[in-house]
Sequence to fold (249 residues):
Amino acid sequence: MKPLAIIGGTGIDELEGLEVLRDHRIETPFGEPSRPIQEGRLGNTTLYFLQRHGSPGAIPPHRINYRANIWALKSLGVAGIVAINSVGGITSTMRPGRLLIPDQVVDYTWGREHTFDDGEDGTLMHIDFTEPYDRALREALLKAAETADIPHEARGVHGITQGPRLETAAEIQRLARDGCDVVGMTGMPEAALAREADVPYASICMVVNPAAGLGDLPLTLAMMREILASEAAVVRKLLSELLTRHNGA
Ligand code: HPA
Fold:
């Protein structure tokens, strides 16, 4: 069984408990990934881990080399990618501390390198993206969450904005009208590139704040990090259940 890969987001700089066996420094046709990809063991399972913001650096969402990241993971032959995204909550059930396994995406990003299709080989790559997340991997995540007794929302729409600034209250109202349940900045083009590369991909969204205009406080990174610290422990539990099941242990 090939290992799964985890792409960590804000607040998941390292996978706690990961025994790192190797660092893979991979050069791709699009440049280097955000940082070397760690191959390691977590309990009885092997996995690859990539922090999309780099670290100790902090690559902002619009500057992440999504193509290099997905290309590098594909070249390692991963069985699938589980992405972790921190998000703001829009729908009333998406309160800080909640986990969502989204099933849909609305992409508001612009100007990012968003495709492997450079049009040069004479074929067009119109991938099917009706269901942006891999059905089987999403179901495996839901099963793992149920088995590990982790409260979660089993479906929802992940809106992705350009950042790095947070949204205005009116922008969040527009996203709500569009049907978005949560808003983040890193879900796209990552998901579409994984589909182009034919790598199963699913996301775990951690709600870390009420989206702009829906809470009383000005939004601060410090506040988000506080929630992230406690949510990260729950995400680790979910991942370890998923990995154990994936490895058939
Ligand atoms: N908006 C966009 N991205 C985010 C947010 C938000 O409110 N919170 C965490 N990532």
Summary: Residues 179 and 246 are 32 Å apart (CA to CA).
